[in-house]
Design goal:
- Helix content is 39%, strand content 13%.
- The chain is α/β, with parallel strands linked by helices.
- The strands form 5 sheets. The protein has a 9-stranded mixed sheet with strand order 3-9-10-8-7-4-6-5-11.
- Helix 8 crosses helix 10, helix 8 runs antiparallel to helix 18 and helix 29 crosses helix 32.
- The N and C termini lie far apart (116 Å).
């Protein structure tokens, strides 16, 4: 075909011109079902390059580029497929390029120990593509292979492909659907064949990092033999890698970086990246500790913060405190970063960077990893992408067989669910490590997506320094024993290439050791720390009785009530929602008593009006699981949303409510991280049902209940947990109140069971206004949301006082009382209604609205009225082994007269929280109410 004719044909044919979209649509249909397209098109598509064993969609642009390039080729043989006898070698070359992009990582030199058993990848062999050494000198068009040339001899191309995709870096990115992202990665990898040039200063920085990593471990091993330190040895490249990451982050405009990691290498990162003084670490090894923490924690769980100087300015680094529960710190880090971004009004993630460091067994084995990846691109939880580093030492404690630890080829395969690029890299090639670090951050900054670096290394010692790894990994540790340390491997390379002399290398090691002996900071980039976060000082040193004023005038409540009960006239609300909003207008005007939803909304309105930001997340939190909140009004015409709480005033605090992903563990951990980074905001997490909160039990146990005692970390997170027995079965009745009370000690958190709208209003106001930041656990109601007795007035709200204990409200003569019934929550109204029905005037009902810290003073004041009473009862809906009975009875016994007795009225002990039969539930409920209200006759 003549060149001019081909050019004209390309411009008007079905492969180009105006029909491109139509052809691509046909191809998409072909990929789904080959029989769904006409036979002639099926034959065309079947001729496109394929990779054995992999479903591959060859980029349409590659095919078009191939033919366009051939049309311009005047001097070389033009290869066009004309039936079965045509020369297909050009197409085969493009197929070869595609194969390396897809599967080159499977042939890469990733394992520094050389013990990986990898299957032969035939797709990467010339013969598989009907090519051979005889074609080496022949020029072929390279399509989109980004080497800066249109054509290359096959031999040169083949070597470039192997260097790029089968060297020390194994790049996985062809699972990404975005053509733009794939092209970007191809350009960055292929243009330098995955081997960029580093100047002498850059090489020196890498060598210094390796020297520091190696030097600290050897120093600690000699100074504190046998002490647990969870050595980084074998994964030394992590130190120069993190420093490279922080340097590049600063140069790209980031101001903060939050790091989350487990125990492996943590001490090394603390000293050699964050700049913790070695003398402080040595004191910790020697057993010295600060008296400011009530319990403290082991040294390899502690956090730290510092400022790190870069060419782009200082980067404030924070290493998150974390427990030994692997991977749970990751959503905490994301929450902390999101809080910082929100504080900086940064919607793109440009100013703060989350960095999470994983183990190979943990990232594949822990479910919270999947949950955290799922958070990464959502409205409520995105942070502009995280850098995720796997310290892949090829063994989890004593387990190293792949068939035992995972069901996937790589430990990082979970990242493909969010189309993250994954870079596997040999840790013994620190320049390759530096390159993928730069590449990962640049990709994250460009596309706001998570990136994973799989740092393939090894563990020189056992799980800890007292462990004997040869017992379970004899072959691996025979290799490790003979393997030189990464510092020496790189130093020998630099010496052999003439970049440095042996004396210079030795001087670096000597200087580092001298720095450790001096006990001063050994990271030259560390600067005096400046203020980068919110001021926590005003929340420190207060007890529960600290003074605060949460009152709001009735006039202001009416004004705000009218605003939050309104939406634009052209915004058509659903009929039931309209009724709720109409009722709220009447409530705001004082024409109707306030229900729960209105009181809660007014709490948020007053808090936002005072300039405080509010963040509420949870499954169905916009509407509310039980149709009570409706913070978001959905227009019935166009689906547009309107949030009255975002339209209070120009200078109000922000109000954000998010329907979260279907997760408890990662979401609650995220909100904990957010609340620990932002004390001035009211941060709330709501469970769909309180029963499901135990899906996040690790977060309650390891962070919320004990974070202050272990690490000195304050947190004002509020947890709303719907709780109450209404015959809905064992999974829709109980928030497991007993578990939270069991965790209570040292005044670590609050557990409240508000029973009126005014109480929930005052409780939320108190949590925001009071200069105290501790977690608040709330048993929120379900049926009480619309109970005719569970209402309040504007005047009650105006006080803004949360009553920890509420005395008898009916006109009962205290002197005639023979029994006092204590209770919390919904059962109060059942007791009240039954007592009124029976016209009993000798039983007083006292509500305990805050179960922890137990309100001893308020309780004793109330009990003063009943000093003559000898019969006290605790009534609860929960089984006897659950609820508040076992955890709180000692508080009640302390409060009542010494000669009085405390009895139990409630369900009998049960392994299940509730029964599943409505008839049985009703009978049990009637029985416990009757038991509480029946005074035994003295015989």
């Amino acid at each position: 075909m003549h060149e001019g004719v081909m050019k004209a044909w390309l411009e008007s044919s079905h492969l180009n011109g105006g029909n491109v979209a139509y052809v691509e649509e046909l191809y998409e249909a072909y990929l789904d079902d080959a029989t769904s397209v006409p036979e002639e098109w099926r034959e065309v598509f079947e001729q496109l390059p394929k990779v054995d064993g992999v479903d591959v969609e060859v980029k349409h642009s590659e095919v078009r580029s191939q033919f366009a390039a051939l049309a311009k080729n005047k001097h070389r043989e033009v290869v066009v497929a004309e039936g079965s006898g045509g020369d297909l070698k050009q197409v085969k070359v493009l197929q070869l390029i595609n194969a390396f992009r897809f599967r080159g990582h499977q042939n890469a030199n990733l394992d520094p120990l050389g013990i990986w058993q990898r299957e032969r990848v035939r797709d990467l062999e010339l013969e598989y593509h009907d090519l051979s050494n005889a074609d080496f000198d022949r020029e072929f068009n390279v399509g989109s292979f980004a080497v800066g040339r249109d054509t290359m001899p096959l031999g040169e191309l083949y070597q470039a492909l192997k260097t790029t995709y089968c060297g020390s870096i194994g790049a996985e990115y062809m699972h990404i659907t975005s053509t733009e992202e794939k092209r970007w990665l191809q350009q960055r990898l292929e243009s330098v064949q995955s081997r960029p040039k580093f100047d002498k200063n850059e090489k020196l920085r890498i060598l210094k990092g390796l020297t520091a990593a190696d030097g600290l471990e050897k120093y600690l091993g000699a100074k504190f033999p046998g002490a647990k330190r969870f050595s980084l040895e074998g994964g030394d490249a992590l130190v120069p890698m993190l420093k490279e990451l922080i340097h590049r982050a600063g140069e790209s405009g980031q101001k903060e970086a939050v790091i989350g990691m487990a125990h492996r290498g943590r001490l090394n990162v603390l000293v050699n990246v964050l700049g913790k003084n070695p003398s402080e670490l040595f004191d910790e090894f020697a057993g010295k500790h600060k008296d400011t923490l009530s319990s403290g924690d082991v040294k390899y769980h502690m956090g730290y913060s510092s400022d790190f100087a870069t060419k782009g300015g200082n980067v404030h680094m924070a290493l998150a405190f974390n427990p030994s529960h692997l991977e749970i710190v990751n959503p905490v880090v994301m929450g902390s970063v999101r809080a910082r971004l929100d504080r900086l009004n940064d919607k793109t993630g440009s100013k703060a960077l989350p960095i999470t460091i994983h183990g190979d067994s943990a990232i594949a084995g822990q479910g919270v990893v999947q949950e955290t990846f799922n958070l990464s691109q959502t409205n409520a939880f995105s942070c502009g992408g995280s850098i995720r580093i796997v310290v892949n030492n090829q063994v989890g404690f004593t387990t190293s067989k792949q068939d035992d630890v995972r069901s996937t080829d790589y430990c990082t395969d979970i990242a493909k669910m969010v189309q993250s690029p994954i870079f596997h890299v040999n840790s013994d090639d620190p320049e390759a490590v530096a390159f993928v670090t730069q590449l990962a951050l640049d990709f994250r900054n460009q596309f706001k997506r998570d990136v994973v670096i799989d740092l393939v290394c090894y563990r020189r010692h056992g799980h800890n320094e007292a462990d004997e790894p040869n017992a379970t990994q004899p072959v691996m540790y025979q290799k490790i024993k003979k393997h030189p340390v990464p510092r020496l491997i790189y130093a020998d390379q630099l010496i052999s290439e003439g970049s440095f002399t042996e004396d210079e290398v030795k001087a670096l090691a000597d200087d580092y050791r001298n720095g450790l002996d001096d006990g001063n900071c050994v990271v030259e980039e560390i600067q005096p720390e400046t203020s980068h976060s919110s001021d926590w000082a005003k929340y420190v040193g207060h007890d529960w009785n600290v003074d605060y004023d949460a009152s709001v005038s009735v006039e202001k409540l009416k004004e705000l009530g009218n605003i939050v009960a309104s939406y634009p006239e052209d915004h058509k609300a659903q009929s039931r929602v309209k009724k709720i909003y109409d009722d709220r207008k009447a409530m705001a005007a004082g024409e109707k008593p306030l229900d729960w939803g209105m009181a809660e909304t007014l709490a948020y309105a007053t808090i936002a009006a005072e300039g405080t930001d509010i963040r509420l997340t949870g499954q169905d939190s916009g509407r509310g699981t039980f149709f009570h909140r409706h913070a978001v009004v959905h227009g019935q015409k166009d689906g547009a949303t309107y949030l009255p709480l975002q339209n209070i005033s120009e200078d109000q605090g922000t109000f954000e409510v998010f329907d979260s992903v279907l997760s408890e563990e990662a979401v609650l951990a995220f909100e904990y991280g957010y609340a620990t980074a932002e004390p001035t905001s009211l941060v709330l997490w709501e469970a769909q049902f309180g029963d499901f909160a135990n899906g996040a039990q690790v977060v309650f146990d390891q962070f919320l209940s004990s974070g202050e005692q272990k690490w000195g970390r304050l947190c004002g997170l509020t947890c709303l947990l719907p709780h109450g027995y209404e015959g809905q079965g064992p999974e829709h009745s109980s928030a497991r109140l007993e578990r939270f009370l069991q965790l209570c000690a040292d005044h670590n958190m609050q557990v409240c069971v508000p029973s009126t709208p005014a109480q929930v209003y005052a409780m939320l106001r108190r949590q925001s206004v009071r200069p105290l930041r501790r977690p608040l656990i709330v048993m929120t109601p379900k049926s009480l949301l619309r109970h005719p007795l569970a209402t309040s007035s504007l005047e009650e709200l105006s006080e803004g006082v949360f009553h920890n204990v509420i005395d008898e409200i009916d006109d009962i003569d205290a002197k005639k009382v023979e029994r006092v019934v204590f209770c919390s929550g919904k059962v109060y109204y059942e007791l009240l209604q039954e007592r009124r029905k029976l016209e009993q005037d000798n039983i007083a009902i006292v509500r305990v609205e805050q179960l922890y810290p137990f309100p001893h003073d308020e309780m004793k004041t109330i009990i003063e009225r009943y000093q003559h009473v000898k019969d006290f009862v605790w009534c609860q809906e929960e089984p006897q082994n659950q609820g508040a009975w076992y955890c709180s009875q000692h508080h009640f016994i302390d409060a009542i007269p010494q000669d009085a007795k405390l009895k139990y009225a409630g369900r009998k002990a049960s392994a299940s929280p509730a029964c599943g039969y409505m008839s049985v539930h009703t009978k049990e409920q009637q029985a416990l109410v009757a038991d509480a209200l029946t005074i035994e006759k003295k015989g």
